[in-house]
Amino acid sequence: MARALPQIVVAPGFAAILYFVYGFIIWTGYISLTKSKMLPNYTLIGTRPYERLFQMDRWSVAIENLFIFGFLFVFVSVVVGCLLAVLLDQKIRAEGFIRTIYLYPMAISFIITGTAWKWIMNPSLGLEKVIRDWGWESFRFGWTVDNNLAIYALVMAAVWQASGFAMALFLSALRSVDQDIIKAASLDGASPWRIYLRIILPSMRPVFMSAMVILSHLAIKSFDLVVALTGGGPGYASTLPANFMYEMTFRRNEIAVGAASAMVMLATVAAIMVPYLYSELRGKKHV
């Protein structure tokens, strides 16, 4: 009985995960092959919901936006986070206070971030109005009401929130680098920036990979930031796949199409996570 106690304790949680996570994934996959509309209909019609999905202009815009948003969000967050970590690694004064300021945005929800940036980018009461009141009458910052710039407004808000998280990852990795190697490089006459570029940053490759995977996952499932900041607009110019799925499933009574878009998102996440987990597990076996 004592040997089986750990399994007994874990079993209810494991069963709940199997049912509420993997069970509903299977159910969603099945629904994506049916002719469900407002309510689930279990009559199979093959891949027609997927064909209809990829014929929709709204979905094409959502996928294009995901590539733009995902690439810029991950790239800029990693670069800004890495630069902040390098600067804080110089043992500056008030490091703890500055680190807290950079990390604070990650502690708040994307809804709050989106709402705050919506106020900032509102042409009638935000940054544009303030600068115009100062005398620069031609200044414009209405990104959230511009079809071509709305997606970049999302990138700006998301980077503001996530770069502190990336900074924390990189800073912890910088502090774990073997100091003997750094001292040896300094004795050989290497400049601090050469030490960072040639020794420290290359040794942080696993941390870079982890940061990119986590941020990519956040980008793919982004929903609440879009709702709060742009509402997917103007029109559907800043819609992302998660917003498309919600719109089709709960507002347009197209459950099958919404389920199909959810399965495409799942496949995208799996395409990122599976190779990463495989490389991590393979690396541990060789250690």
From TrEMBL:
Keyword terms: Cell membrane, Membrane, Transmembrane, Transmembrane helix, Transport
Keyword Transmembrane helix: yes
Coiled-coil stretches: none
InterPro entries for this protein: ABC_transporter_permease, MetI-like, MetI-like_sf
Transmembrane segments: 12-33, 66-88, 100-120, 149-174, 255-278
Subcellular location: Cell membrane
Predominant localisation class: membrane
CDD domains tied to this protein: TM_PBP2
Membrane topology summary: Multi-pass membrane protein
Matching Pfam families: BPD_transp_1
Domain ABC transmembrane type-1: 63-278
Family: Belongs to the binding-protein-dependent transport system permease family.
Name the record gives this protein: Sugar ABC transporter permease
The organism of origin for this protein: Parasedimentitalea maritima
